[in-house]
Amino acid sequence: MTDLASTRVLLVDGSQLITEGLRISLHRTHCFRVVGIAHTVADAARCLRSVLVDLVVTDFDVPGAGPLRTVRDTAQLRPNARVVVLSNADSSSWARAALDAGAVAYLLKTSPVAELLPLIAAAVRGAPATIDARVGSLARLPARMPPPAALGRLSAREFDVLAEMAKGLDNARIAQRLFISNDTVKTHVKAILRKLGARDRAHAVAMVLGESSEAFVAT
């Protein structure tokens, strides 16, 4: 499909602020028709069953199920629709997992809108699989390297914390970047270690990214 004005879009994100901002931006810039907005996996599935869509723009981990569930639901319910994943995580492993699940693009939410919209439009036009240029190189990864199944038990905020841990940030810096308290970060880190069965934070990151633990120790 190349007629952007006739593109029917489903927006899926736990944040109403994000979906509303995307709706306005997509309509103003490319005249996309947003035919559905969902804030949970269940809502997204209902929209996919009841409304014809050409494009799904979804968060990596929508509330209500494990990561990428909406990508997989789209592949099953609307196989002709293209899926763009938006994420806070600068993770080549998660980008690979998104493409393996059926997405055509993995883009970072922190990107300027002026950069995001052309990439979304290119996805509609049938561009090859796209990964945000700021995501780590995929060259060192195997062809298929999905995150461990235990990741499905992490909450969206725990994913955010884990993504910052993967950058080697300590609790104080993570708290600053995510606008939460140090105690909240500590609580999330403990939950991440427990759910992943990791010995420590370095082990948790290594489990996800397949890297040497020493590379991710936050001092």
Automatic annotation (TrEMBL):
Name of the protein described by the UniProt record: DNA-binding response regulator, NarL/FixJ family, contains REC and HTH domains
Q: What GO molecular functions are on record for this protein? A: DNA binding
Q: Which residues carry this modification: 4-aspartylphosphate?
A: D59
Response regulatory domain segment(s): 8-124
Organism whose genome encodes this protein: Lentzea xinjiangensis
Annotated keywords: DNA-binding, Phosphoprotein, Transcription, Transcription regulation
Gene Ontology biological process terms from the UniProt entry: phosphorelay signal transduction system; regulation of DNA-templated transcription
Signal peptide position in this chain? none
Q: Which residues form the HTH luxR-type domain?
A: 147-212
InterPro entries, sorted: CheY-like_superfamily (IPR011006), NreC/VraR/RcsB-like_REC (IPR058245), Sig_transdc_resp-reg_C-effctor (IPR016032), Sig_transdc_resp-reg_receiver (IPR001789), Tscrpt_reg_LuxR_C (IPR000792), WalR-like (IPR039420), WH-like_DNA-bd_sf (IPR036388)
The cross-references to Pfam families, in alphabetical order and at most eight, read: GerE, Response_reg
